[in-house]
Specification:
0% strand; single chain
Length: 182
């Protein structure tokens, strides 16, 4: 079995390199020391707001650990919507479509997540975050293609509107060239 470096391993390496205790880093990052200690011991999952504080405290870009966070949320623990919803919204804000794609595809193995992902797509659509919304609509639509549901119809309609954009001629060329047909 291959050991993958976890976020907590990188935090531990940072603490060692900078000769910081958990308490010192907790103060500088704004995370409660008990929470940070439990995260470091693997007793508690890292929440999205803690991830943001950790990366800030380490002087890293906000999305530095996002790929690892996807792995930790989906594979190393039971996926929880409480952690994934804010993560998806932040990924959309930072244009981390790769992470959105991985989360959506994995969550849709369980169709119970389809309505939750659809709600996020609707929220992103309202915020005019077209790329992220389209990515989720495509995944939700693909998961429901045999359901003939209202949600599937709405996904297809929203994708139509997104692809239509400001230039109907551009859409017509793409549509009739088969780029948008599935």
């Amino acid at each position: 079995m291959v050991h993958t470096v976890k976020i907590r391993d990188e935090i531990a390496a940072y603490l060692t390199k900078h000769k910081l205790s958990i308490n010192q880093f907790a103060i500088s990052s704004g995370i409660h020391s008990g929470t940070l200690s439990r995260v470091m011991k693997g007793q508690q999952a890292l929440a999205m707001n803690h991830l943001t504080r950790v990366t800030s405290g380490m002087g890293l870009s906000e999305d530095y650990f996002y790929s690892k966070y996807v792995d930790e949320c989906l594979y190393d623990s039971t996926p929880t919507w409480r952690r994934l919803r804010p993560f998806l919204l932040q990924c959309a804000a930072l244009s981390r479509l790769d992470c959105i794609e991985r989360v959506a595809q994995n969550l849709l193995d369980n169709l119970l997540y389809a309505p939750l992902l659809f709600e996020i797509a609707e929220e992103l659509f309202e915020q005019k975050n077209w790329q992220a919304a389209a990515l989720i609509y495509e995944n939700v639509g693909a998961s429901e293609k045999y359901q003939h549901s209202e949600r599937l119809a709405l996904c297809q309609y929203r994708l139509f509107l997104i692809h239509l954009g400001d230039d109907p001629q551009k859409f017509n060329r793409r549509y009739f060239a088969g780029e948008l047909c599935r």
